[in-house]
What does this fold into?
Amino acid sequence: MNIIIAFPKIEQAKSVRSILVKSGYTVDAVCCSGTQALRAANELDSGVIICTCRLPDLVYQELYEYLTPRYEMLLIGSGSQVEECTQTMITTLCTPLKVHELLEAVAQIARRYAEKKKQRRKQPKSRSAEEYKVIAQAKMLLMEREHLEEAQAHRYLQKRSMENGTGLAETARMILSLLQDSSGSCV
It folds into this structure.
């Protein structure tokens, strides 16, 4: 899980980073503005941003709105500031910050993150029209050259894809180039 820490005072951010690093977490970025945090988030794609309610250039609501849905937020602030947070998808902690509360909140987010990642992997990858076309062409060529049924050609592509550790479309491209370059059998 990628972790970005954004506090207006760099010393506070480094203190939170130190706690997390000592507990075995890797912190990917330490920032003192919302813009820096967003830049880091765009480079890392997903994870958690640990921040205060107000940064020099953004408040937490703005920062949260600019993030991709693959990011969670851990908001740290005074009791009154945290009470104002009505966004149910934001985890909150009150100051003064207790180390065990911080670590438990990050662990909880890490568990949710792992579960979401597992769910995303279960979802079938969406393919472009070009990828569907390449897969169909490879299956047609296999059917013609190797006298396979459509289902057999598809299983052949899947098997080669798994063996090579490549995607189905990439495997189809390789098979097309091999079969179109040679007149011999490839199965």
About this structure: The CA atoms of residues 68 and 93 lie 22 Å apart. The two ends are 42 Å apart (CA to CA). DSSP finds eight helices and five strands in the chain. The longest helix spans residues 99-122.
